[in-house]
Amino acid sequence: EVCAALILFLHHLTRLHLNANSMMAVGPGSFANLPRLEVLDLSDNSLLAFRLGIPKLRHLDLRDNALKKLSNATMLAFAQRTDFSVLLAGNSWVCDCNIEDFVAWLRNSDAIHDKQNLSCISPENLLDVGLLRVNRSELQCPSSGGMERALETSYVFLGMVLALIGLIFLLVLYLNRKGIKRWLYNIRDACRDHMEGYHYRYEINSDPRLANISLNSDV
Question: Which domains does the chain have, with CATH numbers?
Answer without folding.
Answer: 2-138 (3.80.10.10), 144-218 (no CATH)
